[in-house]
From TrEMBL:
Taxonomic source organism: marine sediment metagenome
Organism taxonomic ancestry: unclassified sequences, metagenomes, ecological metagenomes
Cross-referenced Gene3D superfamilies: Ribonuclease Z/Hydroxyacylglutathione hydrolase-like
The protein's name: MBL fold metallo-hydrolase
Matches recorded under InterPro entries: RibonucZ/Hydroxyglut_hydro (IPR036866)
């Protein structure tokens, strides 16, 4: 997977990474089989993103 863009006006890469890390990737209430309907690249699961997202080193 990937993440959304932050290079548009008002975008903030640090805030985006922090939000993904704290609200999604490290959220113990979201199990690995929790389905994610992202705005890009189709359906995925939290487990797949935790294991394969190209930006995962910033989140875990």
């Amino acid at each position: 997977g990937s993440i959304g863009r932050s290079d548009f006006q008002g975008g903030n890469q640090n805030l985006l990474f922090s939000s993904i890390k704290n609200k999604i990737m490290n959220n113990k209430n979201l199990t690995d089989n929790f389905i994610v309907c992202s705005g890009h690249m189709g359906l995925t699961t939290i487990g797949d993103e935790r294991a394969h997202n190209m930006f995962r080193k910033y989140f875990l």
